[in-house]
Design goal:
Chain lengths: 177, 121, 344
């Protein structure tokens, strides 16, 4: 039963991911990317990790995709044809994809890509948040604090980049909504 | 454990089915009389000028979205922390940890404030 | 593939029945709520409200429903047909999905089949995070609907609305973290159980931070569900009808449905997070079923949101952003530290 669900989610994820890169309208791409990321969240649940699933929906679907959509709307790439960006690179791209698939298939066949639950059994994982919290705040305390610095850098970088842009945009046309 | 999360799928299915059913019902019952001026976008009765969605959007929306992503990630780290907070062996340690985390991000908020990224004019 | 055993099948059937019941109730709820909202509006503005259709205008919602069903569904010529059609669904489905994690009461015995049934669909370990994440998805209906209409008013309304929602979502998350700090669990059932006993154990009365969290949550929620004083996206004076300017007929009705369901879910969440859920306010045992307390509190908050709607004026957009970023977020950060200090 679980396998059936896995194949449904995986299939939808792959199809929507293909649609992301193949549809011509950037807003449609964003829409399919939302669907793809939701399927990944479902896969996290199948992997007994509801906390990560919630994180996936909370951050990637709920926040990052809003940023994507705003970027698409601000930059007016909604109507651009994706074709213009592909040029004649599709032949090497297809080659790389096939090579990748062969490699992943080989790894799965050899059993190199399977992971066990580690020291946790399913009952322990029911308290998902606590497990993650404990590991994060004791064992991985240093990376956790570095994350805060990383976020600070990202925030400052974003403001520096965009505020400069904003001044220029205002000089050019003064148009706003 | 998976049974806890199955209802989400069922709920999404049932809700969409009912919404689509409502749309189909209205599709059956509605009158149809489209003409050019009815189907043009509403612009206070004026002739619509150009397309709306071709990028006349303020960059400020983008800044807000960026700040949102960063603060969203921050709140996310606070959830497991809040669950663990009263555990005796850890509490003081992770509380100090989190003070550092929050202060570093508060610096970011102050920076955005000073730089005027939060102004909306 | 493994064939599931009979108890699992029964459990799945039970879950499905519960989901269908909850969905039906939520689909029907806007009928009484629209009537109530108009009546409240009428009486606050010293007039009668709906009166003609049926006694006290009670049949008015049905008349509205028939009207919306029989209306022509206009799709603007230059609209993006695909996203225009799917946007109402994107707004509606997340609003419904929130109710999967919401507990309405404790276990009860069903009299006929003699089986203990829980009055919630699922008790998730990540309950409140799930609710925040899913309710955040409603934004796509608004932003994609506004974009797909290809109308200037819709686009501006959609963008404003989504910028407003994301700004206040942070404060709502902080308020939720505050509650988690007080109750030490993300599961809503656990959160309600931790507030058992009497009125004084409710999170709202965890002085001095409880009322602050509650205020942040309610203000943030008002903005999140686009109601006055934060109904900028539907600012009819400047924007037509905001993101749904171009919508008509059933698609418009679905947006309204999403809005009403969101209002109910916000009332329910306020009750669960701050006002003890189904717990009785008095420490002495009373012969009143817990579900009564739950419904009574929720009805009060629904009324409260309507009351606010017809009492307060609307904020300007820059004021809205100032409240969200310069008041609510700094206050939340400070309150988190105070709460943490009180809890360790």
């Amino acid at each position: 039963m679980e396998q059936l669900f896995f194949y449904i989610f995986a299939l939808v994820a792959v199809v929507s991911a293909v649609l992301v890169v193949s549809v011509r309208n950037a807003v449609h791409s964003a829409f399919y990317l939302i669907i793809c990321l939701l399927q990944v969240a479902a896969l996290f649940i199948l992997l007994r990790s509801p906390f990560l699933a919630a994180v996936q929906v909370f951050i990637y679907v709920g926040a990052v995709m809003v940023l994507f959509l705003f970027a698409v709307m601000v930059l007016d790439i909604g109507k651009e044809k994706t074709k213009e960006f592909i040029h004649s690179q599709w032949l090497p791209a297809v080659g790389v994809i096939i090579a990748l698939f062969v490699m992943i298939g080989y790894m799965i066949k050899r059993g190199k890509l399977s992971a066990s639950l580690g020291i946790y059994n399913e009952a322990a994982l029911a308290k998902n948040t606590e497990v993650i919290g404990k590991t994060l705040f004791t064992q991985y305390i240093f990376p956790f604090e570095v994350v805060s610095l990383l976020l600070l850098v990202a925030l400052i970088g974003a403001i520096v980049l965009v505020m400069k842009d904003k001044g220029r945009a205002r000089k050019n046309n003064g148009a706003g909504s | 454990m998976l049974l806890t999360y199955l209802p989400i799928l069922i709920m999404i299915g049932v809700a969409s089915a009912m919404a689509i059913g409502a749309l189909v019902m209205s599709f059956i019952f509605q009158p149809r009389n489209p003409y050019a001026s009815k189907n043009s976008p509403w612009e206070c009765g004026m002739e619509p000028v150009g397309d709306a969605n071709e990028g006349h959007v303020r960059i400020h929306f983008f800044i807000i979205a960026m700040l949102f992503v960063i603060f969203d990630v921050e709140t996310l780290f606070l959830f497991p922390w809040a669950v663990l907070l009263t555990e005796k062996s850890l509490s003081t340690f992770i509380f100090v940890e989190m003070i550092i985390f929050i202060v570093v991000l508060a610096i970011g908020l102050v920076y955005a404030w000073v730089k005027g990224a939060l102004e909306w004019v | 593939m493994m064939i599931p055993d009979i108890s699992t099948v029964l459990e799945v059937v039970l879950i499905a029945v519960k989901v269908v019941v909850v969905t039906m109730i939520l689909f029907g709820l806007p009928l009484p709520l629209t009537w109530l909202e108009r009546k409240v509006a009428g009486h606050i503005q010293v007039r009668l409200g709906p009166w003609r259709v049926g006694p006290h205008g009670l049949l008015q919602p049905f008349a509205d429903m028939i009207k919306l069903l029989m209306k022509e569904d206009i799709v603007p010529d230059r609209a993006d047909k695909f996203l225009f059609t799917i946007a109402p669904l994107l707004a509606m489905v997340p609003a419904f999905a929130v109710f999967v994690a919401i507990p309405f009461g404790e276990n009860i015995m069903l009299p006929v089949i003699n089986k203990e049934v829980s009055l919630y669909i699922a008790d998730m370990n990540v309950g409140i995070l799930y609710i925040l994440a899913i309710s955040g998805l409603g934004i796509y209906g608004i932003i994609l609907g506004g974009w797909a209409s290809n109308s200037k008013y819709s686009l501006i309304g959609g963008l404003r609305s989504s910028a407003q929602m994301i700004s206040y979502e942070i404060s709502i998350s902080f308020a939720a973290i505050g509650v988690v700090m007080l109750s030490n669990s993300l599961s809503l059932v656990e959160i309600v159980k931790s507030q058992g006993g009497s009125l004084l154990h409710w999170n709202f009365f965890y002085l001095p931070v409880g009322p602050v969290w509650c205020a942040i949550f309610i203000i943030g929620s008002l903005a999140e569900i686009n109601r006055i004083p934060f109904d900028l996206p539907e600012d009819e004076g400047t924007l037509g009808a905001g993101f749904h300017t171009e919508y008509s007929g059933m698609k418009f009705a679905l947006f309204m449905l999403a809005e009403y369901v969101a209002m109910v879910s916000v009332s329910v969440l306020t009750v669960i997070l701050f006002f003890g859920g189904w717990n009785s306010p008095l420490p002495v045992p009373l012969p009143i079923p817990p579900i009564f307390w739950f419904v009574a509190k929720v009805v009060f908050f629904i009324y409260f949101f309507m009351w606010v709607r017809f009492t307060l004026p609307r904020y300007r957009y820059d004021q809205l952003m100032t409240i969200g970023w310069k008041i609510l977020i700094p206050v939340s950060l400070v309150t988190i530290l105070i709460t943490g200090f009180m809890r360790i």
